[in-house]
């Protein structure tokens, strides 16, 4: 075809003296061209000349050849045979019940199988009308076909009492016998069912009965075989019937069907999954809004495709799915990324997939953030310089420092340790030491363990100078960690780094060999980790696998927090009493080798990706201390202390490069503020007597000066308007007092006026002259 799809071509050569057979061939050509049914061989094109007839149909294989090929490969399952016979009977039902046509040639040679394993009815050469139009059945002229004729045609009896489908149903019985037992030697062999399944034998016997009136209609035969316990009552037939009518099914029915489909695909034929199920899955996603439910069966069917087919059919759908806003679909894609990541090329990953995946780092759903972090292990080898060393590291820095979920911070550290070898030399030098150092100060104990193991797993990426001046001081501080699991890993790492430094000290010529990976370009291998610190390779992975298995009864709110250095001149903070019982170190201890030698853990790098990651789906919420405040780098004020927000604006790397960011936010309480100037003592006010109206409220000035002079405290407590209600209450009382004093003054003035009026008008006095 023009689309490149394969076809089958049937050719009939016109020979002199065979006019009768030529007319039969031309009639078959016409019938095939006009009949359209899913179970009848599909006509595509044809050509009729004086010398030959060409008929082009869909690509098919004769049933006899197909059964022989499958027998060599182990044979057909009953599921496939049940659906194949179902299709042939359905085609006969269409012909006899809907079209009033008698096929008159049902046999092994008239059945074909397409690429999906579906059976198609062909061989329309001897078809005729059941209503008698156009004469009786044409003469076959082929002796091999006469053995399929029913007994009433052979002896000429019972012509008046048989049904129109009787002859075709007899031939259907012959076809069933041949499918299970091989070519039919003679008609008498039909009496012995042979290998025909027991559930089909009763219905088969009805087909080959001597009385043509007893033979069932094709539609009733299907109904009988589909009854409970029947040969055609199975999941495979039900799936096919649903797929045939999927366009008219309700959305809820489609959702349920796709959810249950994945369980059945393992028992279905491979060709059926590739050519029948896969197109329906792609159509359901493209036009049916099936959503995330199609992902699991889609990737399951994708295993049957070669690389070229996968690139053409699956990858375009996957790329489109990543742009979806459906959270269920996004998390399913992240969880099953390992099934299709090998088929994605680097340009597709960097331009069409990674820009959508990074949105998961900012998602409010912790499960999506967690799966996004884990997916970076698969995407990192395919990311370009900008996405890997800039964009991804920016998100990792924020997650490790500010994510409220401890397991996510831990998994971020684990993932960084695994992809460290893919980073550029400058990024490794700038990021790894700061990131793992930050992890060792995490209040979440497994994150501290991950930081230690991250140092060890990426040991070959550090210079000897960094090992001595940056890494060992950090590890030494963990030797007094409250958690034993952290201390154990710290001692192990310290011994390993010291051994490395000592070997270089004994033989300085080894320095170049030891530091060969420090300034090297990014490389996918971490082979050195297996031989030198393989315990860390498996330890990092097995660490978070403990998170899903451990369920501590109480969360260590403060006991897991490393002691922060106290500024000089300030008293040490009083220890806070935590009622919760501290989690025992056994909950988080990683699997350790019996000895520290490299031989005991050789090949550990090969199991790097075999370990389970931590999961938020089953973790107890109590694992994370509820008082953690990752966004400020400290904790709320405690025991008279206050905390400040980090005043620095965070750049891409500031959260990892700011060495003191974990110790900031602990300041001495400010001294009490002096009273505002101009405030009079209470004794200076005239509380009883009247006051002129122009003086106003004596408290108004105090209130205004207090409001004007109030400055926000440096701690986060001052950000909240805690005095709002109290201020409103004081203002209301002052206003009420002022009104009362005003009324009192007016009353006093009125009384004075009354007294003056009672005495009468003042008399004019006279002055006596000397």
Automatic annotation (TrEMBL):
The keyword Repeat applies. Residues 727-737, 744-757 have a biased composition (Basic and acidic residues). Keywords: Coiled coil, Repeat. Residues 564-576 have a biased composition (Pro residues). Residues 608-620, 717-726 have a biased composition (Acidic residues). Residues 1-278 form the Protein kinase domain. Residues 553-770 are annotated as: Disordered. InterPro entries: ARM-like, ARM-type_fold, CIK-Related_Protein, Kinase-like_dom_sf, Prot_kinase_dom. This is N-terminal kinase-like protein. The gene is Scyl1.
């Amino acid at each position: 075809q023009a689309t490149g799809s394969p076809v089958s071509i049937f050719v009939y050569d016109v020979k002199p003296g065979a006019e009768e057979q030529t007319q039969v061939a031309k009639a078959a050509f016409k019938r095939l061209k006009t009949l359209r049914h899913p179970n009848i061989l599909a006509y595509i094109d044809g050509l009729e000349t004086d010398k030959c007839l060409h008929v082009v149909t869909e690509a098919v294989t004769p049933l006899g050849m197909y059964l022989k090929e499958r027998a060599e490969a182990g044979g057909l399952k009953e599921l496939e045979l049940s659906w194949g016979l179902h299709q042939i009977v359905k085609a006969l039902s269409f012909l006899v019940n809907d079209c009033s046509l008698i096929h008159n040639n049902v046999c092994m040679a008239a059945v074909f199988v397409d690429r999906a394993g579906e059976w198609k009815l062909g061989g329309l050469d001897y078809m005729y009308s059941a209503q008698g139009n156009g004469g009786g059945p044409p003469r076959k002229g082929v002796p091999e076909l006469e053995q399929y004729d029913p007994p009433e045609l052979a002896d000429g009896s019972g012509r008046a009492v048989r049904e129109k489908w009787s002859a075709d149903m007899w031939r259907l019985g012959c076809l069933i016998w041949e499918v299970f037992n091989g070519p039919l030697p003679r008609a008498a062999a039909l009496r012995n069912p042979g290998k025909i399944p027991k559930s089909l034998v009763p219905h088969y016997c009805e087909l080959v009965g001597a009385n043509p009136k007893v033979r069932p209609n094709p539609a009733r035969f299907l109904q009988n075989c589909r009854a409970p316990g029947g040969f055609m009552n199975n999941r495979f037939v039900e799936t096919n019937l649903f797929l045939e009518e999927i366009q008219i099914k309700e959305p809820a029915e489609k959702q349920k069907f796709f959810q249950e489909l994945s369980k059945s695909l393992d028992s279905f034929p491979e060709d059926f999954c590739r050519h029948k199920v896969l197109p329906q899955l792609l159509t359901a996603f493209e036009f049916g809004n099936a959503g995330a439910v199609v992902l699991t069966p889609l990737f399951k069917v994708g295993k049957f495709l070669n690389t070229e087919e996968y690139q053409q059919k699956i990858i375009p759908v996957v790329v489109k799915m990543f742009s979806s806003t459906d959270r269920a679909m996004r998390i399913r894609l992240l969880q099953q990324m390992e099934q299709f990541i090998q088929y994605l090329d680097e340009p597709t990953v960097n331009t069409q997939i990674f820009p959508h995946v990074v949105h998961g780092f900012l998602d409010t759903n912790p499960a999506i953030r967690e799966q996004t972090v884990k997916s970076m292990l698969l995407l990192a080898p395919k990311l370009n310089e900008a996405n890997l060393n800039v964009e991804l590291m920016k998100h990792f820095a924020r997650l490790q420092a500010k994510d409220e979920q401890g397991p996510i911070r831990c998994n971020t550290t684990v993932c960084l340790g695994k992809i460290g070898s893919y980073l550029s030399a400058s990024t490794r030098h700038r990021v790894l030491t700061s990131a793992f150092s930050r992890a060792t100060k995490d209040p979440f104990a497994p994150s501290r363990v991950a930081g230690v193991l991250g140092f060890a797993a990426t040991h070959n990426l550090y210079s000897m100078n960094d090992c001595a001046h940056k890494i060992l001081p950090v590890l030494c501080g963990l030797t007094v960690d409250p958690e034993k699991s952290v201390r154990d890993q710290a001692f192990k790492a310290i011994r390993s780094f010291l051994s490395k430094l000592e070997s270089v000290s004994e033989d300085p010529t080894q320095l170049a060999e030891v530091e060969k990976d420090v300034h090297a370009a990014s490389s996918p291998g971490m082979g050195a980790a297996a031989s030198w610190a393989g315990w860390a390779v498996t330890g990092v992975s097995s660490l978070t696998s403990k998170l899903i298995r451990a369920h501590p009864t109480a969360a260590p709110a403060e006991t897991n927090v490393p002691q922060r250095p106290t500024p000089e001149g300030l008293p040490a903070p009083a220890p806070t009493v935590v009622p919760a019982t501290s989690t025992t170190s056994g909950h988080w201890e990683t699997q350790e080798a019996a000895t520290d030698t490299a031989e005991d853990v050789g090949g550990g790098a090969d199991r790097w990706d075999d370990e389970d990651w931590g999961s938020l789906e089953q973790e107890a919420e109590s694992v994370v201390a509820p008082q953690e405040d990752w966004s400020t780098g400290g904790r709320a004020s405690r025991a008279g202390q206050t905390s400040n927000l980090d005043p620095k604006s965070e750049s891409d790397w500031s959260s990892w490069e700011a060495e003191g960011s974990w110790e900031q936010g602990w300041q001495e309480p400010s001294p009490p503020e002096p009273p505002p100037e101009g405030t009079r003592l209470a004794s200076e006010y005239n509380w009883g007597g009247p006051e002129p109206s122009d003086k106003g409220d004596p408290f108004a000035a105090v209130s205004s000066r207090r409001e004007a002079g109030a400055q926000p405290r440096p701690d986060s407590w001052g950000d909240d308007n805690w005095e709002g209600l109290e201020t409103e209450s004081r203002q209301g009382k002052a206003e009420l007092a002022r009104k009362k004093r005003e009324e009192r003054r007016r009353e006093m003035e009125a009384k004075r006026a009354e007294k003056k009026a009672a005495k009468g008008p003042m008399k004019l006095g006279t002055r006596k002259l000397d």
